[in-house]
Write a structure and sequence with these properties.
The protein is mostly helical and 322 residues long. 30% of the residues lie in helices and 0% in strands.
Amino acid sequence: MIVLAVGLYVTNAANRAQQEANREQQRLTAQGQITDRFTASIEQLGQPGADKVDVRLGAIYALRRIMRDSAADRPAVVEILSAFVRVHSVGGAAAPTPARTDEATGTASVRDTRVPPPVDIHAALAALGDRDSLSDRPDLTRVDLSRTDLRRIDLAGKDLGLANLEGSNLSDADLTGADLVGANLTGVELFDTELRGANLSGVDLRDVQMDRARLDHANLAGATLTEATLRFAVLTDVDLSNTDLTDADLTGADLTDTDLFGVDLLGVGLNRANLERARLLASENLRCAFVDDQTRLPAEVARPAADAHDDPECRARRARLR
């Protein structure tokens, strides 16, 4: 009996060792296959020319699958796709968008005639920004799209939290419902950009140009918008609570139903702006803002004097900011 028991133990141990060896071999084989796919995809992604767009698309889809299959390779894939977008986006580094606002109406007088970004750029950005098809949120802290021409790009609903978009041109882009929390938007151009329902809470947008942008139903709670330009922008039903709007230019902007409760509007330009049904603490909110006889205010809010923004109290408040 003892000999039989020892024999069974040895046999079971040998079986377990063989099973472990088989699993390790399968893991190494799978990793080798991923490495082969990775290498082939990089080679295909680097093939230039309009006649190779299908090859590049195949490479992007393969890299997207690798990002899904291998958490260890995900940061490298993100970096490669980010570099591809930066290098191959229209015009390379972001080109400035010329001012084209009719000051009387806020409408665009001359349209940019550039073609939309190529389909391979769209595909790469979709792979970077789409988290729904992944088992968890991809690490987007490595996404570097700085100084990139992204005009007219479609990023609706994409997750770009913590992305580096510094100095990029996103004019005419579609960012409807996008998540931009924690993104670096320093020096970004957002002329005519669709940002409806986007999450920009806590984002630093100081000095950013956002003329004619559509931000209705967006979340801008706690954002910094000091000296930002939002002329003729649409901000209906927007959460601006705890937002810093000091010296922002909102000339002609639509702020209907927007939450401005308790927001300091020191130096904010509101000439020709529409604030009907906006939630204001009281007329004190507007005391140090710029308004004119065309500024539309909530019925319960008294119109401040035209020179109220220059009275001693407002000057003192500004001095405290320095």
